[in-house]
Amino acid sequence: xxxxxxxRTRTAFIDLSSRGKIRVAGEDRARxxxxxxTNHIQQMQPGDGLYAFFLNAQGRILADxxxxxxxxxxxxxxxxxxATKLVEHLDKYIIADDVTLEDETPRWAVxxxxxxxxxxLATDLGVAVxxxxxxxxxxxxxxxxxxxxxxxxxLRIFLPAGERNAFLQKLQAVDVPEVSTExxxxxxxxxxxPRYGEDITERFLVHETQALHGVHFSKGCYLGQEIVxxxxxxxxVHRLLAPIRIKGSSIVPPGTKxxxxxxxxxxxxxxxxxxxxxxxxxxxxxxxxxxQSKPHLVFAGSEPPLEAYLP
Length: 311
Fold this sequence. Notes:
With 311 residues, this protein is α+β, with helices and mostly antiparallel strands. It is 23% helix and 31% strand. It folds into 2 domains: 3-188, Gyrase A, domain 2 (2-Layer Sandwich), CATH 3.30.1360; 238-311, Aminomethyltransferase beta-barrel domains (Elongation Factor Tu (Ef-tu), domain 3, Beta Barrel). Helix 1 packs parallel to helix 6. It is globular and about 55 Å long.
């Protein structure tokens, strides 16, 4: 069984050590993060975790992150390309606050243990399994969060970098394979899971992503909140991020636009060929009315024209 098949049907691990890890400490850490993000940071307790967006004043998405309350501090787990930008963004708003920011990315080795059998396998290995999504439990010198990036279910295991090889040997002893970045990306797109930097960028508004589990709509003021509330109250969202399937094996680049009945209907953000499904899987921002009617989609910029559909 290939690592790709193992991730789809059983369990595999993804090396997520390159993701940005930002420690936020100081008495005012929760207040600052609450005022800067879309989710309810101030109600978090040690052991809690959540997903949140960080916006600019125009409501555009600067970064996303998993936020973990580690009791004496908070840890932000974000995409590699967003880490520096997020630190600089937060630092700009620290004025008289008792808050310190430290990039701890090199300190952590992070394993994404994912797939349909990942929770059962983790239990067999003696890995702590949080009952609630995004929450965390201590594990050795690190911790384990119930978070996945490529499949609906999985765990994210944070360990000091010096303990990486020891845990890797435990996984190898029970034949858990490592998937490559590209293999994990294919499975992620098969599951319709977006990633910041590809499918979510500063071009887009929160409602357009459909990732509203990252937003607390009654938490009060935060940077960008006025735009989020305006979109919510008016209910006018003209495009939504959704899975798309392209027939055949031709992979289209980001920005490719598909039409329906002669009008633009979908703009692709990412795509990859799925060996299991034998077609191209991807994500696209799709016109709201097209998501309802699910029309036949066509890209006329190739010969022959590419056909696509909305699953």
